[in-house]
Amino acid sequence: MATSGTNFYDLYRHGSLGVTLTDALDDLISAERIDPQLAIKVLTQFDRIVAESLQEKVKARLTFKGSLDTYRFCDEVWTFLIKNVTFKMDNGSNAVHADKVKIVSCSAKRTDEK
Amino acid sequence: MSNANVGGVYDHIIQEVINAVRVDFEENGVDDGVLDELKKGWQHKLSQLNVAQFPWDPKPEPPPPAPPVQASAPPPAPAQQSQQQTPSNYTQATLSPQTSAQPASLPGGPHPNGNGVAIKPDPGMLKNDPVIKQEPGLANAQGPPGHPVYNNTANPGRGMAAQRAAQALESQYGPRAAASINAIHMGSQINTAQQGQRPSQAPQQINQQHMNQQQMNQQQMNQQHMNLQQMNQQQMNHQQQMNHQQQMNQQQYRQGIMQQRVQPQQGPHPGASNGLPAAQVDGSGDDFEGILMQRGPDGRPVEMGRVEIDSIIHGQIAARAKQMEGGGLMLPFKEATRHRGTASKKDRTGNPSQVDGPEDDFKDEDLDDDAINSDLDDPDDDKDDDEDDDDSMGHMMLCMYDKVQRVKNKWKCTLKDGVLTVNGREYVFHKATGEYEW
Fold it and tell me: Which of A47, B62, B228, B375 has its Cα between 20 and 30 A from that of B79?
């Protein structure tokens, strides 16, 4: 497990948590309250903390089925576009259905090795 | 997995991040208040997304709900303003739909200019008068009974020939030929009415056939002269030299033609002697020459002349030919573009000049200058591009993958540490397995 925080994916910045953090940082930067370099440091910390938190704090399991529309594997990143997906939670709660889901997935090994 | 623990996880992440960057903030000499502001702004924005139930949102904790109010000092004011302005907004909302509804209802109703543009074979556009020039094969018994010659169902060609013969006789012999003319008329009338009684009308038939033969001979001779004359004229045009001999020949032929024409008075049409039974009767009034109508710019139906119809047909054929050779691929670029330009110009500036049914599809392709009839040009392929528009907070899963396996079209993948946004809700999972078919 890396400690520097530079070896984590910035993948989660595209999720709701990362987008809102980026927005908040942008507001501060445009108000000239903080430096852009500081904002980059915050985001780097965010990358690490999200990955660690998801590993440690989350125990939920999930299965999903659907029809794969598009798949792509580039630079060790899988991208799937799945249509008519049904997500089932392990706690037996109601399934969630979606017409279209895009999955962006980075290799789990890279973070483990480093 | 439900999204109940999402709030807790996110709150934990936020706390962790804020704590982790606190040192950095201090090193940069940034006030702690700014860090607090960052946290509140982050939480507020996250709450606005409404993707999950967050611990700082509900009442249990007074401090967390406070931040949104405090951090967003501007937002409450707009909220009050909007409440105050609700009455006026209502009136606008109730009034504007009515004013906008009237123009909106227009498209449903009859469009004033739409009819002029619509190119449909309107039944009313076809001129349905009894004076329509009827083709021999299409002639029917609708005509007025006063013109039995034009109304010959059984043998229209013979009827016209009979009329011509009658006119020729009249012009040649005057009143003396009245009996013969009457006989011819009788013959044609009887032909129409009593097709089955031909044998009994043998004399008239013979008489008529005789006249036909006579006329045919005249036509053939006339045609020969005409052909020679035309050939001579073509030669002259091509060579652009005034040859005296040819001029003399031409004059001679003209004189011969004039002599030929004096006798039958009504010169037969050159095209009538090509073996077809008098396909065209020329010289009738121009007033019913057009058989198709089109709507003018003012909406009134305007009769289309033969030249206009011919130009339409020519345009159609040209477009079809262009389509067959690949939309101008085989032509030099200049020519291709020039043709296309004229064709489209004709279609646009001239009023809807098409009367043979709805517009064909290939015209649109013709107008596309870059079309090379390749699959890559197919505009339908553009639909697939919507996969790439990551509709910001749409349905998306961000995760790590452990394994991605495929057997033929069946995919199995093992994912972990993911965040899933679907149907406006957010989920987190430690492990996920997906099975899908391609």
Answer: B62
